[in-house]
Inverse folding.
C-alpha cells in the first residue's frame, strides 16, 4: 500500500497565515515532466478537484491529483524560511537525485 504524503504543521500554519482556506483555495502539489532532472514540482494555490487526494489540517487543505500521487508516496510537504526566502518544500524519498533549485528531481 502506498503511503500518502504528509504535510507538516508548519506548512498548514503558513497556509492559514496567507488565508488560503478562507478563500476556498488549497495548496496544490503536482509532479510534471520537465525540469533539469526529468520531473519537476508544480506548487500553487488552486481549487480542489474531484479526483484529488485532500490532506487537511488546521482548517487548511493540501491537494494532490491522482497522476502525481504515486510520485509523492511517503513524501513530506513542509514550509521553510531561509535567508534566500521562504517556500514550500518537498522531501521525497522516491527521488533518486534532485538539483540545486529544489523543484526538479529524477526517479
Amino acid at each position: 500500500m502506498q503511503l500518502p504524503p504528509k504535510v507538516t504543521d508548519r506548512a498548514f500554519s503558513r497556509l492559514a497565515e496567507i488565508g488560503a482556506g478562507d478563500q476556498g483555495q488549497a495548496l496544490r502539489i503536482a509532479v510534471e515532466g520537465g525540469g533539469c532532472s526529468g520531473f519537476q514540482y508544480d506548487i500553487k494555490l488552486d481549487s480542489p478537484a474531484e479526483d484529488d487526494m485532500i490532506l487537511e489540517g488546521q482548517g487548511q487543505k493540501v491537494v494532490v491529483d491522482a497522476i502525481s500521487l504515486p510520485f509523492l508516496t511517503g513524501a513530506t510537504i513542509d514550509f521553510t524560511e531561509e535567508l534566500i526566502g521562504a517556500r514550500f518544500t518537498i522531501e521525497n524519498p522516491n527521488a533518486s537525485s534532485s538539483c540545486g533549485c529544489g523543484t526538479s528531481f529524477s526517479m
